[in-house]
Specification:
- There is one protein chain.
- By secondary structure, this protein is of the alpha+beta class.
- Helices cover 29% and strands 27% of the residues.
Length: 290
């Protein structure tokens, strides 16, 4: 595998960063997870846009332009002969001192890893998954804004540990007000009376690229979409339930906190959206191979 670090492609064993990098010491940095399908990088511009938004929010100057990052991401796929896979794009604050002050970090680092990924077992996409609600709440907007896709993912990791302890793959996180925010690594949607509902960004949901794509596909299918505040009660009584994410794509949920969702099987609207999403990923994106 070839890994991009600060303008160079290195062999996997030589791809290293300093122990003084503030991304390692303090989680001071940002990242994007991007997918490649059929020789194309899906929604690359949107991912790079979001990376720059995160960078601006934490006053991190990315040492490459938008266009340069897009070219480097595509080249990372090409170097690794990747037609279908996952790209992790990371920007750290760079090498500094053991002190917290980011002003001591003179040059941010850009890292691009292009490889394979499988987020959930294949059978869960066919039969649906069981999930739980966990005690760990989503970060407050007034503390670390959930819209920032930062390297500090401990909030989500603690929730993932609670999911693991409950014997499930994923978990719902609430915000401090008790409303549904998102899952540990995915956005969530429910279907109720033919309408598609998803928590608003103001509840702590990440601005998900797949989330937005699904909302656009639903509109094209004539399925009404809204973003109200949701409670666990709404999830329990949904007709259908599914999760979305760059890595996960669209995965049905058939049980939450011991309550069966709908018929206990992936629903019709979920299946239609999965079909449309797969059709879109096959033909859309930035070409890797000309």
């Amino acid at each position: 595998m070839k890994v991009y670090i600060d303008g160079k492609f290195l062999n996997e064993r030589d791809a290293k960063i300093s122990v003084f990098d503030h991304g390692l010491l303090y989680g001071d940095g940002i990242f994007e997870g991007i997918r490649a399908y059929n020789g194309r990088v899906f929604r690359l511009k949107e991912h790079i846009d979001r990376l720059f938004y995160s960078a601006k929010a934490i006053l991190l100057k990315i040492p490459m332009s938008h266009a340069e990052l897009m070219r480097a991401t595509v080249e990372a796929c090409r170097k690794n002969e990747l037609r279908d896979g996952y790209i992790r794009l990371v920007v750290t604050r760079g090498v500094g001192t053991l002190g917290l002050n980011p002003n001591h970090c003179k040059k941010p680092s850009v890292i691009i890893i292009a490889d394979k990924i499988q987020v959930y077992p294949a059978e869960l996409y066919a039969r649906g998954m069981d999930i739980v609600t966990v005690p760990t709440v989503r970060n407050l907007h007034s503390a670390l804004n959930p819209a920032i896709k930062s390297l500090n993912y401990l909030n989500n990791i603690l929730a993932k540990i609670e999911a693991n302890n409950a014997g499930v793959e994923e978990a719902v996180m609430l915000n401090a007000e008790g409303f549904v925010a998102e899952c540990t690594a995915d956005n969530l949607f429910i279907v109720k009376d033919g309408k598609l509902l998803t928590p608003p960004l103001s509840a702590g949901a990440l601005y998900g690229i797949t989330r937005q794509t699904v909302m656009e596909l639903a509109a094209q299918l004539g399925v009404p979409v809204s973003e109200p505040n949701l409670t666990r009660y709404d999830l329990f009584n949904a007709d259908e339930f599914f999760l979305t994410g760059t890595g996960a794509e669209i995965v049905p949920v058939v049980k939450i906190d011991g309550r069966v969702v709908g018929t206990g099987r992936p629903g019709k609207i979920t299946k239609r959206l999965v079909t449309e999403y797969h059709s879109l990923t096959k033909v859309s994106g930035e070409p890797i191979y000309e």
